[in-house]
Amino acid sequence: MSSLLATTDFLDELERHIAQHPAVRHPFLQRFSRERLALHRIQSYGLQHYQLVKVFLTYMTNLVARIPDSSAATILRGVFEDEFGQYTVFRSHVHLYQNFLRALGLQDEDWGRIQWREETRNFVSGHLKLTQDGDVLMALGAIGPGHEYSIPLMFDYLLKGLRHNTALSDRELEYFAMHIEEDKDHAVAFRRLIAEVAQTAMARDRVRQGALFSLELRRRFWDGCHAAVFGRSL
Q1: Is the pLDDT of residue 233 over 80?
Q2: pLDDT averaged over the chain?
Q3: How is the chain classified by DSSP, letter by letter?
Q4: How far is CA 67 from the centre of its chain?
Q5: Where are the domains of the chain?
């Protein structure tokens, strides 16, 4: 079997595994999508999630700078452009998420002074450390399949819950709807990059370890959101 075919089979299997992972099918997501929630509970979720949103580009920048393959920046150029908002800050993903928070009735100072839950802090610190000085193939797995493939699956639950519980417009919910579509393309870009740099069984295993590392931190993050929104831990 050629290394390219082996990597394709590996990624197909990894994506199937991710789709069934407890982080992607988390009880918080399922409850959020169907139960009636007061506004302050949605705000509690939104403020914790913002702490993840605002640092994602740092993960990306750390990662690309450390990948030896010279084509990495070119392959992931579209991902960066989407995150930055196609050259205007007002379309950046961070700005779109801030629009969502404001539509929930929150003020700018609210998301700057929120007390981070331990699960939120661990998620961010774990990914920063991995992308800064951890194993680079593990970091690629964490940010590629661990994030970009899994997010559309998880955000479908979130968007359903937000539409069910609020009167927010499509524009105010654009951050979530956009990720359901854009991140499918981003996952394809990461697949292409992984196919170039993970051509041995050992390299592919490190990519898998990184994806599962990220998903475990995500599962714990949703645990924290469950406690914040529903008032009790799992």
Answers
A1: no
A2: 90
A3: --HHHHHHHHHHHHHHHHHTSTTTT-HHHHHHHHS---HHHHHHHHHHHHHHHTTHHHHHHHHHHH---TTHHHHTHHHHHHHHTTT-GGGSHHHHHHHHHHHTT--HHHHHHPPPPHHHHHHHHHHHHHHHHS-HHHHHHHHIIIIIITHHHHHHHHHHHHHHH----TTTTHHHHHHHHHHHHHHHHHHHHHHHH--SHHHHHHHHHHHHHHHHHHHHHHHHHHHHHHSS--
A4: 20
A5: 3-230
Minimum mean pLDDT range among 87-96, 135-144, 197-206: 87-96
* C-alpha triplet 112, 117, 119: angle, nearest 5°: 125
Of residues 61 and 218, which shows the higher confidence score?
218
134: part of which helix (H) or strand (E)? none
Tell me what the mean pLDDT of segment 184-199 comes to: 89
Tell me which fold the domain 3-230 belongs to: Heme Oxygenase; Chain A (1.20.910)
pLDDT tens digits, one per residue of 61-82: 899 888 887 788 788 887 767 6
